[in-house]
Design brief:
Layout (H helix, E strand, L loop, with lengths): L1 H4 L4 E4 L15 H8 L4 E4 L4 H6 L4 E3 L5 H13 L9 H10 L2 H8 L9
Parallel strand pairs: 1-2, 2-3
């Protein structure tokens, strides 16, 4: 994955069932986790509001007609950074902080930090 991200930093996620309204469409969380944990910039079709809230700040959600404009904006942001600063690194740190297995189990109420995870 690291090798792929050296040349491909942006990924587009489009639902196969694009006729479904976003409120009824689940996010592809496994795909998001794989990409974001390596620093990929993900633009996705809209999803269920709860799923979007979970991934807020890590994945960019947009209606299909707005995806080209969003990509252009993110592309400009990425290229305005100093060459030494890797655009996706803050995503990696935020992903690790918010969506680590321990944090997920804590929010689900199945473990607490005292359980030693």
């Amino acid at each position: 994955m690291s090798k792929l991200l050296e040349t491909h930093a942006f990924f587009l996620n489009m639902h196969r069932e694009c006729y479904e309204p976003p409120a009824q469409t689940d996010c592809e969380t496994l795909r998001f986790a794989q990409l974001v944990s390596y620093g990929a910039i993900v633009i996705s079709d809209r999803c269920h509001a709860d799923d979007e809230a979970e991934w807020d700040g890590l994945v960019h959600f947009a209606d299909r007609r707005d995806m080209p404009r969003l990509f252009h904006s993110l592309w400009q942001q990425a290229h305005s950074q100093p060459p030494a600063a890797k655009f996706g690194l803050p995503l990696v740190a935020e992903f690790a902080r918010r969506l680590s297995p321990g944090r997920i189990f804590e929010r689900a109420g199945t473990l607490t930090t005292s359980d030693g995870l």
